[in-house]
Specification:
The chain has 17 helices and 12 strands. The chain is an alpha/beta fold. The longest helix is centred in the last third of the chain and has 20 residues.
């Protein structure tokens, strides 16, 4: 019997083999008339997509003060290296013998991340930061299961944490316990002590935290957790602030995820791609996802010899192109990773000092790579933080993260990264000061923004209540 995939024998109608599509699909599904695609030249198509590209905001066009996202500039040489034939066209099921170059790169990247974090073992599988968090929580869960400590069902999460932290722990079946921040925007040690019992598996922390403040008592926290038999998980989303100056191992952490697409300059706009390697101390090595890349007998190979592995967490082996870009960045930057962090911290503190009088600064502490202002004063004058963000768009600035972290009302989280020059920072300061002045004098005018973007000001209330999901040509 002939199948639909066999070569057409010229049967009447649109179809293959001796059949028509109507023999396989309901009549209602068949098109009754031609599709009517426009007849366009290559030049017209090119102009169409170029026009769409011009509408898109990108780091090549303007400044991203995007807190907790580290939208640093991605060197174009990274793209060239990732597109090399031996990397870009290597099949993910290629044998180890035929993929020695790729495996060598991955092994060397693992070694570099071990040195940078102070950890003892690494997996490159997770595809993003939140995926790394989930992997870390799975490792922690299995670690206590193998010890027979099934009572370890709680994970402590600071009230300023990234929203993915409690979500990742909850997905692994843990109960989430929130610990409050103190007046300095750091974990309240006394509050933490009250939460500790034999049911606590771990604490998830970001250091510097989401307010951009370094946890001064991190060693005390580490001591308390380990005395309780609990583990410490390090969210590496803000690692760009401390590279080369300290590391999670020195702070007492047991497990770390890194956002390669933030810290080590690989593209992650538009939701991806990303990479979230997980690094662990020696006692957690056997729990890593398998395989890990190892070297022995003069060859690199994928090893599945992990006694308590949680199994694969990603098809094939992560987002390999992102790994290439990150390794290239680390090789090119070398010891200057420390300088990159220093410049990021310097830029953030510069902006904080310039803006803290025009906007409220809830936690007036030296910051690291980012800081959080409050637009509460401007909100009382008639323009919310969202209005400030939209006004920035008319000055060729991407808005910063707003309304996060939740412990700051009308939050404006600003992170300049090390990539930006003083001229760019000064221009941003002038614009933010001008917006504050405009709100004082004429808030109604500010509320009309954005006016220069492809999509002008929209009615958020109407859009939320009556979303139009219909495509219109």
């Amino acid at each position: 019997m002939k199948t639909i995939f066999e070569k057409s024998n010229g049967a009447e109608g649109i179809g293959v083999g001796e059949y028509k599509l109507g023999d396989f699909l309901p009549e209602d599904f068949l098109r009754k008339e031609t599709i009517g695609l426009p007849q366009l030249s290559e030049l017209e198509v090119m102009r169409h997509y170029k026009e769409l590209s011009d509408r898109n905001f990108c780091i090549e066009k303007g400044f991203y003060p995007l807190g907790s996202c580290t939208m640093k500039y991605n060197p174009k040489v990274n793209e060239l290296l990732a597109s090399l034939d031996g990397f870009a066209n290597l099949h993910p099921l290629q044998s180890d013998e035929d993929a020695q170059g790729a495996l060598e790169l991955m092994f060397n990247l693992q070694e570099a991340l071990k040195k940078i974090t102070g950890m003892d073992a690494v997996t490159l599988q997770p595809a993003a930061g939140a995926h790394g968090e989930l992997t870390g929580m799975m490792i922690i869960k299995k670690y206590f299961e193998t010890k027979g400590e099934l009572n370890r069902t709680k994970v402590i999460v600071p009230d300023s944490a990234h929203g993915t932290n409690p979500a990742s722990a909850k997905m692994c079946g843990f109960d989430i316990v929130e610990v409050k921040s103190n007046s300095k925007g750091q974990v309240d040690i006394e509050a933490l002590k009250q939460l500790l019992d034999k049911d606590v598996a771990a604490i998830m922390m970001t250091n510097p935290n989401t307010l951009g403040i370094f946890e001064e008592k991190v060693l005390k926290i580490s001591e308390l957790m380990h005395q309780n038999g609990s583990l410490l998980y390090y969210d590496g989303a803000n690692f760009n602030a401390i590279m080369g100056w300290t590391n999670p191992a020195l702070m007492g952490f047991d497990i770390v995820h890194l956002n390669l697409h933030k810290t080590f300059a690989t593209p992650h706009g538009g939701g991806g791609p990303g990479a979230g390697p997980v690094c662990v101390v020696e006692k957690l090595k056997e729990f890593l996802p398998s395989p890990v890349v190892e070297f022995a007998g003069g060859k690199y190979f994928r090893s599945y010899n992990l006694k308590h592995s949680i199994g694969k967490v990603r098809s094939f082996y992560g987002n390999f192109g992102v790994l290439v870009r990150a390794y290239a960045y680390i090789l090119m930057t070398g010891n200057n990773l420390k300088l990159a962090s220093a410049d990021a911290v310097l830029n953030a503190n510069y902006l904080k000092e310039k803006l803290k009088n025009a906007y409220e600064l809830p936690f007036d502490e030296p910051c690291m790579h980012e800081f959080v202002l409050s637009g509460e004063r401007q909100h009382q004058q008639g323009v919310s933080t969202l209005g400030i963000a939209k006004r920035l768009m008319d000055s060729n600035f991407h808005p910063p993260t707003v309304y996060f972290p939740l412990i700051v009302h009308e939050a404006i989280m600003i992170e300049p990264t090390e990539s930006e020059s003083k001229d760019v920072l000064d221009n941003f300061v002038d614009t933010m000061l001008k917006i504050a002045e405009e709100i004082e004098k004429n808030p109604e005018e500010v509320l009309k923004s954005p006016k220069t973007t492809p999509v002008k000001k929209v009615d958020e209330t109407l859009a939320a209540r009556h979303p139009d999901l219909t495509f219109k040509n």
